[in-house]
Amino acid sequence: MRTPIGAFLILSGLLFTIGTVGVLVRRNALVIFMSIELQLNAVNLSLIAFSRYWGNLTGQVLAFFSMAVAAAEVVVGLSIIVSLYRKRRSADVDDARLLRW
Amino acid sequence: MGEEVLFWILAPISVVSAGAMVLQRNAVHAALLLIVNFFTLAVLFLLLGSEFLFVVQVIVYAGAIMVLFLFVVMLLGVDRKESLTEQLAGQRWLATLLGLGLVAEVVVAVRLGIGLSSGRLPDFSRVNAGGNVHALAAVLFDRYFFPFEVTSALLIIAAIGVVLHGRRQEPAAFEDDATPAGIAVVQPEPGPGGETTPVGAP
After folding, report:
1. Is the model more confident about A30 or about A97?
2. Which residues of A touch B92 (CB under 8 A)?
3. Are the beta carbons of A20 and A40 closer than 8 angstroms?
4. Integer angstrom CA distances of residue B122 from A46, B126, B128, B177
5. Which residues of chain B lie closer than 8 angstroms to A55, CB-CB?
6. Per-residue pLDDT tens for A11-65?
7. Of A10, A4, A15, A5, residue with least CA distance to A49
8. Do residues A62 and A45 make contact, with C-beta atoms less than 8 angstroms apart?
9. Which of A18, A62, B2, B81 could form a cystine bridge with B18, CB 3.0-4.6 A?
10. What's the whole-model pTM score?
11. Class of residue A98 by CB neighbours under 10 A (exposed 0-12, middle 13-18, buried 19+)
12. Residues of chain B neighbouring A39 (CB-CB closer than 8 A)
């Protein structure tokens, strides 16, 4: 394969950054959550690229575990968003200010 | 050669779809753009020689997780638009500035660490001998068997936790929240023979 591994890593960094900006800028809890998924996927891409670079499968195993953890995390997070919506009638993170001083 | 062309086609698509997802006001459109992004990433996984994670990406992310997301978006109401007024002054500019800083940092780190020139990568067909699934299973169930089992425990705990958390609670649990602070809740006086009043009676 001729594509430099750095290209994959920079793509991964770009996607991670877009996800970070999404988390910082958006206020809909669901879209913030989608941005977090984007960040997780960007990290998976860099893990698999490193696995290719070093010529062993450890990075792929780590990406596999990260996918399993992401699946569990999505279920719990969406459940929290739904119960927040039930209580506040809004999925906007600015409306949840119960713990704010 | 074909792989390089595929990378340079897919990388812009994935960056553009991710950026459009962040800028999209409608949550359903954001979810659809995220699915596009997941598919491009899946093909990139395939380019990097990990067929198993390609399939897992398509099934778990683009399939299960995004269906769950769309389900919740539909449940919470599709036509809600986010208001565009900033609660914190300058939040967007600051976030964009920090993002640009992060990109610069990543580029410098990759440049100093691995380098941007295309050195020959080690031959991966030797690692993937007998198929990627086979090789991955050999590593996973040999060296990483205990973390694998812990993952199953994690999934079960998450499922049980969500079942407990998502249960519809008793209406009494919401009473504290609905009452404005400082106003005493007047309890109905028990009438004569009040002990026998049923709980739900007015």
Report:
1. A30
2. 25
3. no
4. 17, 9, 12, 61
5. 121-124, 126-127
6. 999 999 999 999 999 888 899 999 999 999 999 999 999 998 888 899 999 999 9
7. A5
8. no
9. A18
10. 0.83
11. exposed
12. none
Alpha carbon separation from A67 to A35, A64, B44, B89 (Å, rounded): 15, 5, 16, 36
Cβ contact, residue pair B65, A71, below 8 Å: yes
User: For residue A40, what are the contacts with CB-CB under 8 A and spacing of at least 6?
Assistant: A66, A70
Amino acid at B88: L
Pick the closest to residue B76 from A37, A23, A94, A88 (CA basis): A88
Burial of A51 (0-12, 13-18, 19+ CB in 10 A): buried
- Please list the ranges in chain B whose pLDDT falls under 70: 78-84, 118-120, 169-202
Q: Locate tokens 């996984």: which residue? A: B45
DSSP class of residue B57 equals: I
CB-based contact, B145 to chain A, within 8 Å: no
Residue B13 identity: I
> Cα–Cα distances in Å, from B9 out to A70, B43, B49, B96, B173?
27, 11, 18, 26, 54
Residue type, A57: L
Select the residue of B4, B34, B57 nearest A38 (Cβ to Cβ): B34
